[in-house]
Structure formats: C-alpha cells, structure tokens
Write a sequence for this structure.
C-alpha cells in the first residue's frame, strides 16, 4: 500500500485551514439555521464520516477527493463533539480542552509505542491509518475547544483570535525552518490550524453585532467549499497526469 496522506505543501495547509472553516460554519448552519440541532447534526455527520472512512480505508493510495472529503467531515464531527460537550452538557471549555489534550497525547503515545513513528510520510498500513484518523479527529476537537476557549472564554474575539493563532503558526514554521523536529512541528501546526480556521470562519460569518463581518454561514461555507473543490480537482488532475507520465514507455 502506498502512502495514504498527501505531501505537506502550501496547498495542503490552505485546504486544511479552509476545511476547518467549513467545519465551523457548516456545523453552525446545519444545527442552527436548518434547525437540525446539535445532536441530529452530529449523528448525521458521524454517519457520513463513517461511510467516507470506509471508502478511504479501502483505497490503496492517496486519492485527493476522498481524503479531503474525509477531512471536511472529520472537521464537522470534531466541532460537533466540542459543541455537544459545551452547549448541551455544559462542560467547561477549560475541562474539555484539557481532556482532549490528554486523549490526543494518549493516541500519540500508543501510536508511537506500537509503530515507533508518528510521521505522516509512513501511513502505509491500515493500522497506521487508523491511528492517523483518530489523531486527526481529536486535533479538530481539541482545536475547537482551544479556539472557543481563547476567543470566547478568554475574550480575545474573532479578530484578535485570527491574529494570535496565525502568529503561533508562523512561530512553529520558523521553528521548523531552524531545525526543530519535523513531526513535532507538523502536529502542533495541525492542531493550531483548527482554531485559526474556526476564528476565521466566525469572523467572516458572524454578524457585526458579535464582531464578525456578517457574511453568514451559508455564503462563507459555499465560498470555502468552492475553493476546496477547485484545489482538490486540480490535485486529482495533476495526480492522474503524473501517473500517466510514469507509465509511458521509454524510447
């Protein structure tokens, strides 16, 4: 089985941030504006995620459309897990952030103990891929809780939240450039892109009364989904063209 995860590039991070934004605005749209509520939205998205994961796990190589569809659905489900705990069960964001940190650390610990690596360049077995998606799910849940904690409980707001998380990611990028471990910096950046995307989504979609730009969740979600689809289509085209080039007979 070939590596099931895309190469880390500017396009990778762009789609990742946009998928987190869609997770934030899309979940809000379904739960609030469509009227499904947090519980029904969570169950519906969890069902779709289960189907997407089955298809993704059945692939023998990285296929852009199913991989990124799974990421978007994981983003929505991760958001719903945090929203369920904070809105329905009234669990403090401090508690949920700490709990998700512990769970994610445990996943990484077990993953490393069994596989001896956390590198995304070696997702070449089903077991490693299961560890990978479990970690991805809880990075979204943790990122959602940490982002809500910073922008709401600590009162940073959407504008400052975007700047703070963007600065933290820039600091991680600088650390990577200076030689800090690539695996460590990748996973920290992956976690931080979740609150960055969520803060960006809230900034664009929320009304001016609450500090946003008032674009609305549906328009924000559609705009970002359009860009994601365009990027994924381009990646799929490039992948097919590269595959055909490699199979051409040499003279």
């Amino acid at each position: 089985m070939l590596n099931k995860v895309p190469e880390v590039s500017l396009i990778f991070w762009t789609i990742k941030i946009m998928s987190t934004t869609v997770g934030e605005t899309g979940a809000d749209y379904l739960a609030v504006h469509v009227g499904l509520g947090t519980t029904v939205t969570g169950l519906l998205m969890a069902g779709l995620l289960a189907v997407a994961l089955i298809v993704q796990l059945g692939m023998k190589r990285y296929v852009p459309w199913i991989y990124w569809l799974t990421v978007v659905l994981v983003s929505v489900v991760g958001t719903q897990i945090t929203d369920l705990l904070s809105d329905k069960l009234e669990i403090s964001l401090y508690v949920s952030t700490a709990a998700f940190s512990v769970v994610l650390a445990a996943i990484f610990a077990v993953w490393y103990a069994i596989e001896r690596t956390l590198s995304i360049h070696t997702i070449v077995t089903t077991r490693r891929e299961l560890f990978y998606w479990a970690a991805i799910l809880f990075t979204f849940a943790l990122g959602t809780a940490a982002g809500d904690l910073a922008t709401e409980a600590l009162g940073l707001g959407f504008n400052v939240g975007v700047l703070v998380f963007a600065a933290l990611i820039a600091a991680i990028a600088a650390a990577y450039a200076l030689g800090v471990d690539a695996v460590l910096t990748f996973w920290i950046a992956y976690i931080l892109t979740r609150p960055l995307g969520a803060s960006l989504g809230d900034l664009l979609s929320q009304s001016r009364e609450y500090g946003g730009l008032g674009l609305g969740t549906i328009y924000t979600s559609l705009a970002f989904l359009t860009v994601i689809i365009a990027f994924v289509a381009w990646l799929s085209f490039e992948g097919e063209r590269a595959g055909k080039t490699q199979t051409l007979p040499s003279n």
Observations:
- The mean pLDDT is 87.
- The two ends are 29 Å apart (CA to CA).
